[in-house]
Amino acid sequence: MFLPVDDDYRNLSLRLVAMLTTVSERYSFQYLFKIDDDAYLRVAKLLELLPSLPDERLYWGKFRAGTKIHSQPESKWYNPEYLVLNTHYPAYAMGAGYLITSDIVDWLLTSKLPLKIFKGGPEDAQMGIWLDGIDVHRIQGKQHIFDKNTLEDSHCSNSETVLLHGIRNDTHFLTCWYCEVYLNDICKSDFILYTKSEWQRLLRANLIEKQLKIRESITLKLVNFLSVFFLFLVFAFCFLATLLTKLQLV
After folding, report:
1. Which of 21, 57, 112, 131 is the most buried (most CB within 10 A)?
2. Same domain as 200, residue 158
């Protein structure tokens, strides 16, 4: 998806609005999960979690409260416009990943209250500003989000973790996928980081394993077929022998 906004950190809030607008125009959806590009989302775990969450006016994520607004102009989180009004941000779901329902998206885009877009400052705090004072279900999901960058109030649990934040590169993404799918423990990805050559070896090994399983399956099916065919021949031979014997007696 290409957005008509320059890819600059200080334009993140503008890009957020552009993303919400584009998604709303192109797709029909019930939930929208915003995720950073250095985060790994476990879709199956998210689907397991959804039935326990409200299906409307939902604002779910790892909430942070009392965050002081950066007042240093050199900071990439500097937000001079909002700093005039407040010294701290309202509670907001951190930007690694948060979930909102479609009715919130609709309200943000169609509300008679104009959205105040602050140029600068983090976009996740911007979402918190927009929804501050609005009647939404703010559901704390910090136990489901593991942040490798800060480890702030965070731990990894294979049974509960929905999102891992702080993925370093494509190889690390593959490691997360491998640990989840093949090792059945996503938390091992925090200790394992395969190199490209190791990945090639692992993928070749998995490919060979799959080929062996396919061959074993074909061999088993062939053995079963030959066994049935042999029994059929034995039965046919016995039947013909019995028939010939009866004919001779006659």
Report:
1. 131
2. no
Among the candidates 154, 169, 184, a domain finishes at 169
Contacts by 19-23, CB closer than 8 A, 24 or more apart: 20/105, 20/108, 20/109, 21/109, 23/105
- Pair (215, 130) in one structural domain: no
The pLDDT score that the predictor gives to residue 137 is 96
Phi-psi region of 27 (alpha: psi -120 to 50; beta: other; left: phi over 0): beta
Number of domains in the chain: 2
Of the candidates 126, 127, 114, 113, the residue with the CA atom closest to the CA atom of residue 81:
126
Residue 25: domain span: 9-169
pLDDT, position 14? 82
**In the chain, which stretches have pLDDT less than 50?**
208
Q: Which residues pair with 213 in a beta bridge?
A: none
Alpha-carbon distance 123 to 120, whole Å?
A: 8
Both tokens of 39, joined, read 């985060």
pTM of the model: 0.71
pLDDT computed for residue 209 by the predictor: 57
